[in-house]
Each structure stands twice: as structure tokens, then as C-alpha cells.
Specification:
By secondary structure, the chain is of the alpha+beta class. It has one domain. Helix content is 41%, strand content 24%. It has helices spanning 2-21, 30-39, 43-56, 62-66, 70-87, 90-95, 127-135, 159-169, 176-186; strands at residues 101-105, 108-113, 138-140, 153-157, 193-194, 201-202, 208-215, 220-226, 230-239, 242-253.
Length: 254
């Protein structure tokens, strides 16, 4: 009788633990994990999804950075100066308060020109000019800047994760109501914003840099960026202390 009791107690304990711990998710892909989290409305499993993402893509190391060309190192340094300025702004404290993760852009475009800012993206007025502008740029497609000032954990929006998130929220595939439910579910961990017209989602948390230009000696820079339903531009000068603002302003708003 005592043996039966011990067996029963052991089975009961295993079943109880499995209920507390939930399903085994170790063999699931990230897409499967996210869908399971939503199916079960589980913030714990959603947290696993973002924790995996956070562990999968790490910020660039100092060794990796110093192995890059001077131009690429300069792009990273400029981003660092700009982000530190805006991450501490009142807008960001309000927008991302209470979120566990902060989504940083995983790609940035740049080019070297004679006079930074003279012919930036804001000056493009035709489709042909736009195509020429795009063709003139280079990009860092595995952009992983070190974001120290954010109080939340950082994840980088690579093409893989951008596609995964857009598929999950059902871009032009699900009803608006279902998409809204899925967006609301994701906001337990991250901040996602609809644009002004309500037909697109900002997966990247702001500020987001669209385009950077440097003079060919890498002494001055011009940047175009997106920040809280508005677009802006900024000029920088290189000093012994690093990159410093020499002018900035909002150029359009949604």
C-alpha cells in the first residue's frame, strides 16, 4: 500500500510541475514559440521568445568594431552620439516606460559625399532621383550598435525578425481586429507604434536613423532620422571629444 502511495505521489508531483512550468518549448523555432505564446496568451512564453532573440544577436564587440574600416567605425560612433542624446529625452521616457525590450534597427545606410546634407534624401523630388539616391548608398546590414543608456534589454531588428513580426501581426492578411489583438499581445514586452495613417507599424523603437552622410575626410556628418511621428535632420562636427551636434531640426511631421 505504501508503494502505491509513493507512486501516486510521484505521478501527481510530475503532473503538477508540468502544469506550473508549461509545455516544453526547447525544440520550437522562434516562429513556433511566438505563435504558441499567443495561442496560450502566455506572457511567460512571450518572454522566452524575446529572451532567445536577445541571446541570439549580441551587440558588436570592441574587437569586431576595431577590425572594421574607418568609415564603418565612424558610422557606429556617430550613432552612439546621436542615440545617447535622444534616448534620454522626455519622449522616450514616456514612450517606452515599462517595456522589457527595446528594438534597435539592424541596418543603416550611409555614403561619402563632397558636402554632407546638400543632396540628402529630403531633397529628392522624383522617382528617378530617388532611385539614383538609393543606388549611391552603402549599408551596414548586420548593424549591432552598443546601446548602454537604455534601461531595457536590446534586441536588433534583423530581416529575419522583421519578417517574423510582420507575419505574426498579419500585415494585409488578418482582420484589423485580429491584428490589433496580436499587437496588443506583443506590447506586453515591447513597444510597437502605428504610423499617423494607421496603415503601417513602426517595429523599430525611436530614434531610427534613415541615412547618414560623411565628407570624404570623415570630419563632418549629416543625418536624417525618424522620431515620434516626425522626421528630422542633424549636422555633426568631429571634435577631440567625439561627434558633436552643430545643428538639428524637425523637417516634417505626420
Amino acid at each position: 500500500m505504501r508503494i502505491y502511495f509513493h507512486v501516486f505521489f510521484l505521478v501527481f508531483s510530475v503532473l503538477s510541475c508540468s502544469r506550473l512550468l508549461g509545455p516544453d518549448t526547447s525544440g520550437l523555432s522562434q516562429e513556433e514559440l511566438l505563435n504558441l505564446a499567443y495561442q496560450k496568451k502566455s506572457n511567460r512564453i512571450l518572454g522566452q521568445f524575446f529572451s532567445r532573440w536577445h541571446q541570439e544577436i549580441k551587440p558588436i564587440t570592441e574587437e569586431e568594431l576595431t577590425s572594421q574600416s574607418e568609415t564603418l567605425q565612424t558610422v557606429y560612433k556617430l550613432f552612439d552620439s546621436f542615440f545617447k542624446e535622444h534616448d534620454g529625452s522626455r519622449w522616450n521616457r514616456v514612450l517606452y516606460k515599462g517595456r522589457s525590450y527595446f528594438i534597435v534597427q539592424g541596418k543603416v545606410s550611409y555614403r561619402l559625399v563632397e558636402e554632407p546634407g546638400k543632396h540628402g534624401l529630403m531633397s529628392v523630388s522624383s522617382r528617378e532621383e530617388h532611385q539614383q539616391f538609393l543606388a549611391s548608398r552603402d549599408s551596414i546590414d548586420n548593424f549591432r550598435p552598443i546601446v548602454k543608456s537604455s534601461k531595457t534589454k536590446v534586441v536588433y531588428l534583423t530581416e529575419k525578425y522583421e519578417t517574423l513580426l510582420y507575419n505574426f501581426v498579419g500585415m494585409n492578411r488578418l482582420t484589423k481586429e485580429e491584428s490589433s489583438h496580436r499587437l496588443h499581445f506583443l506590447t506586453k514586452q515591447i513597444k510597437i507604434s502605428l504610423n499617423h495613417w494607421g496603415n503601417w507599424w513602426h517595429m523599430i523603437n525611436h530614434p531610427e536613423i534613415w541615412h547618414v552622410e560623411f565628407d570624404k575626410k570623415l570630419q563632418t556628418a549629416y543625418m536624417e532620422y525618424y522620431f515620434v511621428a516626425a522626421g528630422g535632420s542633424a549636422y555633426f562636427d568631429k571634435t577631440p571629444q567625439g561627434w558633436e551636434f552643430s545643428g538639428e531640426g524637425i523637417t516634417w511631421q505626420e
